[in-house]
Amino acid sequence: MIGLDALYWLMGAMFAAFAIGHAFAQSWRSAAFWGCFAVTMLGGSYLPDIVDGTLVIVLALLAAAGLKPKPAPTSDAKTREASAAKLGNALFLPALAIPAITLAGTFLLPHSGWVDPKQATLVSLATASLVALGLAMPMVGAGPVVAGNEGRRLVDSLGWAAVLPQALAALGGVFAAAGMGKVVSEIATAYIPMTLPVVAVVTYTVGMAVFTAIMGNAFAAFPVMTAGIGLPLIVGKFGGDPVIMSAVGMLSGFCGTLTTPMAANFNIVPAAILDLKDTHAVIKVQIPTAILLLIANTVLMALFVYHR
Amino acid sequence: MWVLSGIGVVVLGFALRLNPLLVVVAAALVSGLAAGLHLDAVVAMLGRDFVANRFIAVAWLVLPVIGLLERGGIRERARMLIARVHAATAGRVMILYLALRQISATLGLTALGGHVQMVRPLIAPMAEAAAEKEAPLDDAERDKVRAYAASADNVGVFFGEDVFVAIGSILLIKGFLEQNGIVVAPIQLSVWAIPTALMAFAIHATRLWLFDRRLRARSKP
To answer: Domain limits of chain A?
Structure first.
């Protein structure tokens, strides 16, 4: 049965290929960085935890020192213009095949018996990437080595940002183990006077947004804020509706996600993949939307949570 | 109270613009130590959680095919396509993408989009080409257009997905409330995600439209 382990082998092989490409180009820091990352992919299930942890620290130190990749070989602007005119809209086919195959696989694979049903989406995404690659290679007239170099070109524009989401997930685990949530909700309830129902609503929505911004993830903030403020005060003391509170509360947390570098997948990775000079450029254009929507959510909850 | 030192490291590190990967790893080590764990236990915990979250990197498997399509000229093709559409402006392209991304997410189709698969090869080049019909973009303006394109993807998926009943966050809420003795149907939660979904679209589409107006005003001094 195909599950996560097969995907780890595939990803490990891809990152190892990027590392080898860098080694041939003699960009040693990049070779070491992607090589270490490939080892965590391939060996993660077998190596002792402390070795994996040490590799993560090595990745962070290399990232801080600067990866300094030498540019991977690619085509020039003139060739691409000519190729775009020649291939036409067929170029969009492999790109659109990725979501189409991922969707189809998500619905069909769980019942096939070939795939671990819990991992159907991830297996589908990996399959879709491979099928799309199979379509694109003859179309562009390139082999696996060229595809590897083009992948390396993109992973270089991501750089350390490609590893950051996983490191943040690990940080979330350490925060949880250290009892961070309990301390934050204790501080919120100890310092804000909760005598008015509307104060409880404002504290809950703003708290969800701020705590989400700190943790980078509304899923981590929701249980803490809801157990600390939502259930005992809005529902328990003031008789509010738990459905409206939780639904709008979670979405208030998502407003926080728009504002934080801790949500690297959504905010830092796109700045890297779009070659933006400012790593925080995406966050900056999102902050006004986040603030306006948080206000709107707070008003929505204040108006409806106590009247049903 | 000392466990909060990890948050301090994060805030200070990002404020000083140190390398984010270094900041995050340092924050994990500091919080673990502050919670009274030994260094080797913290490093092991960091390694265990990092490896347990390897599935996040599955998204990078699209890199070779996207890179190859760029070599074949997909970004240039997206630009040519939009240059022919007379009514296309940067704002309209991004508002349309925001709407499509949000509607598909309300149907649970969150895989239809993303920064690597859609924004970089298609949406950003289309928005740039539409803006350049008026006048060339300088580097700062180009970065701004791209940042807005990325924001349309985020806002669309965040405030669309909760309208779908079987999405992770709805199931998390249901499970958490059940643990606390409150039984709710996912559909009730989804219904209460609709007002915020509409407000999110109204707010962000308005901001994209205002940005479009500023962009177009630039060509008429």
So the answer is: 1-162, 165-304
